[in-house]
Sequence to fold (168 residues):
Amino acid sequence: MTTNEAQESKQHLPEHPARLDWAKLAPEAYRAMIRLDAAARKGVEPTLFELVKIRASQINHCAFCLDMHSKDALAAGESAERIIQLSAWEESKHFYTAKEIAAIELTEAITVLTDGFVPDEVYAKAAKEFDETELAHLIAAITAINAWNRFGVSTRSVPGHYTPGDFG
Fold:
């Protein structure tokens, strides 16, 4: 393979355009989401907050939120290894604490409501690891990221341009 052929084979596909800028078109809704996110964040440890957001975003296929929260997690001191392993956490539980696993399981149960309600055993495990105030904030954080994901995937928000500190 020539150098020119190698360079051509590494060219990335073009970005898809965003469908619309919902934050500009619905600014009150956007500001309400910012407030919800900020309120939920106050009760959850920063790296755990980002792990929850990454896991929900993986499930919901929100590339924009994956980009944002992976970068935010790294900026908050999270390791690349734990971020990479998150999509396969059941096979790599040893990377996480019992509290983090409880949060990840709760994230999955709340995110995938099409499978039914949040199972009692998942909720009980989270309730064992978090006090009631922490648990309320965790549920708010999971709910907020699921809403953000729905905005991101429905409007096709474009990943790759976020820098930590841009949001909020």
Summary: Residues 25-153 form a domain with the AhpD-like fold (CATH 1.20.1290.10). The chain has nine helices and no strands. The chain has a mean pLDDT of 93.
